[in-house]
């Protein structure tokens, strides 16, 4: 084969090999194979010495052109490989700095917590402090100090969960009354919201775990008039409208006299439904004047001090406020229910 033909075939071969290169390394290896020190074209040019001057000129020119051509193929291929590399990198590492975050779903306060906080605001605006107490209580705080004697039949009014060590899950927030009387110096006004527990059959208006807000005012000359005023203020502010109430005598060992304050059922407007057990009325706010025995038990002279107390059923109040037909929704964890508040 003449040198010219050889050079032409090297160009063709180089074109094909370089077009197949996938990486810069492959490209450089191929480049060396053709125009490197030991490359094919370089080898061919070594045979130039045996040619005439005229032939040297022609072949030299051709060899130069071949070298330039191969170099330009290498460079354009190198650019292509780089472009492809960055394209892949850009796609896989794409980050849009202007893209805003998808809105995250926000949680909300449970309706019972919402109304609890509202009630706390109402009472703090009337000069009450907020007290807390433990859910596991002593028999003394839940019953004994509240004038329930050991075998008092009224203990059966509240079916109780006992712990193995002889304590109990508080059946009412009235246990916090005892803590207030022991720890605060009268005169004082407190409310104490909290979760209470009873071993009860669950139905539309009864839970075994529910919430109460206890209230207690102790001072000199505290009377039923103070109690009624406070209850009416509370209800008109919570319901933001006139609510029909009735006061019935009610028995609790720790108040004398004791009352049951019922409200006209707002779910059925008093017509009768499953929440009010068809009576049109809902027992919501038992209350009364603090029993002299409770004051004496706490070391206070009942001739000097008097007071009133109440125990609001918070779940039932929330049911009335939002027209909720079944108390079981509150602990159901049902998001469709909870998202409405
Ligand atoms: C008491 O628990 C007394 N400690 C209330 C009290 C306090 C009276 C201070 C006098 C002075 P009673 O057991 O009635 O009382 O419960 C109070 C309120 O809690 C009821 O009116 C009712 O609204 C609510 N309640 C009672 N049992 C349940 C229950 N199983 N599920 C939901 N709410 C209940």
From TrEMBL:
Its EC number is 6.1.1.20. GO terms for biological process: phenylalanyl-tRNA aminoacylation. It is found in: Cytoplasm. One of its GO terms (molecular function) is tRNA binding. Tetramer of two alpha and two beta subunits. It catalyses: tRNA(Phe) + L-phenylalanine + ATP = L-phenylalanyl-tRNA(Phe) + AMP + diphosphate + H(+). Residues 113-340 form the Aminoacyl-transfer RNA synthetases class-II family profile domain. This is Phenylalanine--tRNA ligase alpha subunit. Its cofactor is Mg(2+). One of its GO terms (cellular component) is cytoplasm. The gene is pheS. Mg(2+) binds at residue 256. Keywords: Aminoacyl-tRNA synthetase, ATP-binding, Cytoplasm, Ligase, Magnesium, Metal-binding, Nucleotide-binding, Protein biosynthesis. PANTHER family: PHENYLALANINE--TRNA LIGASE, MITOCHONDRIAL (PTHR11538:SF41), PHENYLALANYL-TRNA SYNTHETASE (PTHR11538). It comes from the Bacteria. Binds 2 magnesium ions per tetramer. NCBIfam families: pheS. HAMAP family: Phe_tRNA_synth_alpha1 (MF_00281). InterPro entries: aa-tRNA-synth_II, aa-tRNA-synth_II/BPL/LPL, Phe-tRNA-synth_IIc_asu, Phe-tRNA_ligase_II_N, Phe_tRNA_ligase_alpha1_bac, Phenylalanyl-tRNA_Synthase, tRNA-bd_arm. Belongs to the class-II aminoacyl-tRNA synthetase family. Phe-tRNA synthetase alpha subunit type 1 subfamily.
């Amino acid at each position: 084969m003449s040198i010219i033909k050889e050079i032409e075939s090297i160009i063709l071969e180089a074109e094909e090999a370089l077009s197949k290169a996938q990486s810069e390394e492959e490209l450089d290896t191929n480049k060396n194979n053709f125009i490197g020190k030991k490359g094919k074209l370089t080898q061919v040019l070594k045979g130039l010495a045996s040619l005439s001057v005229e032939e040297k000129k022609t072949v030299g020119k051709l060899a130069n052109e071949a070298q330039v051509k191969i170099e330009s193929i290498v460079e354009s291929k190198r650019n292509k490989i780089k472009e492809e590399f960055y394209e892949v990198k850009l796609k896989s590492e794409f980050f849009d700095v202007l893209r805003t975050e998808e809105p995250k779903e926000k949680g909300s306060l449970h309706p019972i917590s919402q109304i609890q906080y509202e009630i706390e605001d109402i009472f703090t605006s009337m000069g009450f402090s907020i007290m807390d107490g433990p859910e596991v209580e002593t028999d003394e705080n839940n019953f004994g100090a509240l004038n329930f004697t050991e075998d008092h039949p009224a203990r059966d009014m509240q079916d109780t969960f006992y712990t193995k060590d002889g304590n109990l899950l508080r059946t009412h927030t009235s246990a916090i009354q005892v803590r207030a009387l022991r720890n605060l110096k009268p005169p004082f006004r407190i409310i104490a919201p909290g979760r209470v527990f009873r071993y009860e059959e669950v139905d539309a208006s009864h839970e075994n775990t529910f919430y109460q807000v206890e209230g207690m005012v102790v001072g000199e000359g505290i009377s039923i008039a103070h109690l009624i005023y406070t209850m009416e203020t509370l209800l008109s502010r919570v319901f933001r409208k006139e609510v029909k109430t009735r006061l019935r005598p009610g028995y609790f060992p720790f108040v004398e006299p004791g009352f049951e304050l019922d409200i006209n059922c707002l779910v059925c407007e008093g017509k009768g439904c499953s929440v009010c057990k068809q009576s049109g009325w809902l027992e919501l706010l038992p209350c009364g004047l603090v029993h002299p025995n409770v004051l004496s038990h706490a070391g206070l002279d009942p001739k000097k001090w008097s007071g009133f107390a109440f125990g609001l059923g918070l779940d039932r109040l929330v049911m009335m406020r939002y027209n909720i037909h079944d108390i079981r929704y509150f602990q159901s964890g049902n998001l469709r229910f909870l998202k409405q508040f």
